[in-house]
Each structure stands twice: as structure tokens, then as C-alpha cells.
Amino acid sequence: MTEEDKKALLQVANLSIQHGLDHQYPSNISVKDYSSPLQQTGASFVTLQLNGELRGCIGSLIAHQPLISDVYEHAHGAAFKDPRFTALSIKEFSNVHIEISILSDMQVIDFKNEEDLLKQLTPGVDGITIENLLHRATFLPQVWESLPEPVNFLHQLKLKAGLNGDHDLLDMKAYRYSVFSIE
């Protein structure tokens, strides 16, 4: 990805949020106005931070639309649709830090038990998703910065999935992915 592509993604995220502030609804962008790599199908998460604290994070794990559209959609979602936060205000927008994470394809992690799964994780590198029929949660690799201990990382991921922290993961599937981050 070129420096121009990176700048374009950040500009699109900013435009999406600005449009939401101005009009209270998302808009569409013209995919053909962007470079070929940005027109390719891609999965992304957009994370907003305010004063070093999470302010919104929305994304998709599976690529299903052009990357440029995915970033545009998720920037709006992170600013206005994250159920953990109220909608971003104009005042906050001037101080918000935007990070775009472009996800690789997910890879299944085969594991015998939780200890085996923990041994296979690479802190700071692996994004992890756990799921079964009723529960699903993911942590981007950046979450390792605040949860550097693998046992605690996995414990918090289980809680995010709505499980008891002591829940046995044998009924779960686990996946790993990496991200390319732009700030």
C-alpha cells in the first residue's frame, strides 16, 4: 500500500465522520475515484481514541466490500453507532485520534485445551476471535498493549463474548489474524 493510499484511507475516515456530524446519517463514496488497491475487497476496523481512551471501535472480520467503502462505513459506525458510547460530538472530533486496522484473512487455530491455545498465541501480533453458536468476540492485536499477559487477554476476551471468564473453550472455535495499521 502506497503512502497515498494510506492518506486516502485516513481522509475517507475523516470525511465519513464529518459527514455524520453535518448530516446525522452516513453517505456513500464513489469507489472508482480511488486507487485499485483501495477498490479491492477488504476487512477493516476503525478505532477512535480520545485522550488515550477508547471512544469507539467498529469493523468487520470478513472482507465483503471494497476496502475504501469498508473504512468509510466503519469510521461512521465508530463515531456514531458503537453501543458502548454516545455519538461523537463536534468538540470531540477535533481531538479524536483515528486508527485504521486492515485485517488479514482469519486462520483457524487447532487446539486441544486452553493451555495449548495460549501457547500458540503471539502477543502483540495475533488478533484473536473466539466463537460458538451463541457467543463471539474478537480482540485486535493492539489490545495486547493493555492486556499483555496471555491468560488475562484470553480471560477478558471470554468476558467480552458474554462468557464466564472460567468458561472452558473446548466448545469454541478460535481464529487468528494480523492487521496492517494506519494512524
How is this structure best described in words?
The chain is of the alpha+beta class and 183 residues long. It has six helices and nine strands, in the order H-H-E-E-E-H-H-E-E-H-E-E-H-E-E. Strand 6 and strand 7 form a beta hairpin. The longest helix is centred in the first third of the chain and has 21 residues, at 3-23. The model has no long low-confidence stretch (mean pLDDT 95).
Our Rg estimate from Cα atoms comes to 17 Å
Total beta-strand segments: 9
Please report which band the strand proportion falls in: under 5%, 5-15%, 15-25%, 25-35%, 35-45% or over 45%.
25-35%
Described by the principal axes of the CA atoms, the overall outline is globular
> Could you estimate the helical fraction of the residues in percent?
25-40%
The largest β sheet comes out as:
5 strands, antiparallel
Question: First CA to last CA: what distance?
Answer: 14 Å
Label the structural class: alpha+beta
- Separate helix tally: 6
Mean pLDDT: 95
Low-confidence runs of at least 5 consecutive residues: none
Listing every helix as H and every strand as E from the N terminus to the C terminus, the arrangement reads HHEEEHHEEHEEHEE
